[in-house]
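Q: Given only this backbone (418 positions), what sequence would you predict?
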């Protein structure tokens, strides 16, 4: 349920499943899928509000998710133990008022029932209920349900929190999700506006609050405390990464992430490559995708200090590609945090190193984890990993995803019971 006791899409889907209204069998399409096959929802170019039909997730997915969520949040660690003292509540000198103003304008555009639909407590576990897959019952209010003017204000909130580059990438991912709908004809599963906004807490200059955007290949978790922000976990991906035709022909994403990662790996000397290379085979998925908030990942690969200055600069540049999705000012604050831990920063590689290879890489330190992976086809069906399907994620290890460590410190300082 949401903050006002209303049923979320996940609650409705659960009731439907319990009542036998949705089939989870891999061989039996759901009633929604059957209905859409008879009268498909045409989303392309659609501006008028519509209610996205609930789509049953893959068999076993929700059970896996609930099992993960039943574990108290700890965060990404190397061995199950959180390194203390990495994050501090402090003044950055970078105002967050534009984000608060955008959130207030968005809320003011909504009627009471829609506000209730998307608002949750700031310490809610709803933060952790995101997923990058398309077949998943999401909480909040979708862009598809909004009037055009409301949708514009929702996107203005996203724009206020991101850099121009970050906002452009997010919108391009949405557009490429429309391209998938055009290619597959599955307009009830894919589309430009099948993304859900949730607000955690209320916009405030002092008290913590935040927002979440959750949808296929695009998830942004955004916690705000005073003038500090934490923008992780952030998941960005796409299949395809380039639209050859259709409404958004020419749209492309992840060129810099792909090319700069490969260029860095190819610049390494043989011994450095040996240290960086974890496997010739790619993983089936990035390691810290949805419902892996407490994943244990040891440091591996080549250490920053083992690189020459000519190699260290491209590694920093690669990190900046991802951190650069954060709004100006706060991106520099985040990079300063990253640079304080360069001595414990590692670059890791899986896959080939040829100019046309597919690969996985990560950058890992006590305060940042970046993963990039070429994926097998899901919507488009290729069985082997290709450059046409990319997943990326950025995390804050050691307990500060979702700003959790800052929230803990804030509550201990200001809300401790006598």
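A: Predicted residues:
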């Amino acid at each position: 349920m949401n903050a006002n006791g209303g049923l979320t899409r996940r609650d409705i889907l659960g009731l439907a499943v319990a009542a036998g209204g949705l089939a989870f069998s891999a061989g039996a399409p759901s009633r929604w899928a059957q209905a859409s096959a008879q009268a498909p929802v045409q989303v392309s170019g659609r501006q008028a509000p519509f209610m996205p039909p609930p789509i049953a997730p893959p068999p076993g997915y929700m059970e896996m998710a609930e099992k993960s969520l039943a574990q108290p949040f700890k965060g990404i660690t190397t061995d199950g133990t959180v390194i203390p003292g990495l994050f501090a509540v402090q003044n950055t000198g970078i105002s967050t008022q534009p984000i608060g103003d955008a959130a207030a304008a968005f809320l003011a555009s909504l009627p009471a029932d829609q506000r209730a639909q998307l608002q949750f407590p700031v310490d809610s576990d709803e933060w952790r209920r995101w997923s990058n897959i398309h077949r998943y019952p999401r909480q909040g209010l979708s862009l598809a349900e909004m009037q055009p003017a409301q949708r514009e204000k929702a996107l203005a909130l996203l724009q206020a929190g991101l850099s121009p580059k970050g906002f452009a990438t997010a919108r391009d991912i949405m557009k490429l999700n429309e391209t998938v709908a055009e290619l597959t004809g599955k307009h009830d599963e894919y589309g430009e506006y099948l993304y859900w906004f949730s607000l955690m807490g209320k916009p405030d200059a002092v008290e913590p609050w935040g927002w979440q955007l959750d949808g296929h290949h695009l998830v942004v978790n955004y916690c705000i405390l005073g003038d500090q922000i934490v923008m992780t976990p952030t998941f960005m991906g796409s299949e395809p990464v380039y639209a050859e035709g259709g409404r958004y022909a020419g749209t492309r994403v992840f060129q810099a992430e792909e090319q700069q990662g490969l260029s860095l790996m190819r610049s390494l000397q043989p011994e450095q490559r040996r240290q960086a290379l974890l496997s010739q085979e790619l993983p089936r998925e990035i390691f810290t995708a949805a419902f892996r908030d407490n994943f244990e990942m040891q440091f591996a690969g080549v250490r920053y200090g083992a690189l020459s200055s000519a190699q260290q600069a491209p590694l920093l540049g690669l990190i900046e590609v991802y951190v650069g999705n954060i709004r100006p000012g706060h991106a520099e604050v985040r990079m300063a945090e990253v640079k304080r831990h360069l001595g414990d920063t590692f670059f890791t590689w899986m896959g080939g190193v040829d100019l046309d290879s597919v690969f996985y890489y990560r950058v890992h330190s006590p305060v940042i984890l970046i993963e990039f992976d070429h994926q097998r086809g899901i919507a488009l069906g290729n069985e082997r990993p290709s450059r046409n399907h990319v997943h990326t994620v950025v995390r804050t290890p050691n307990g500060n995803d979702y700003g959790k460590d800052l929230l803990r410190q804030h509550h201990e300082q200001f809300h401790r019971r006598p």
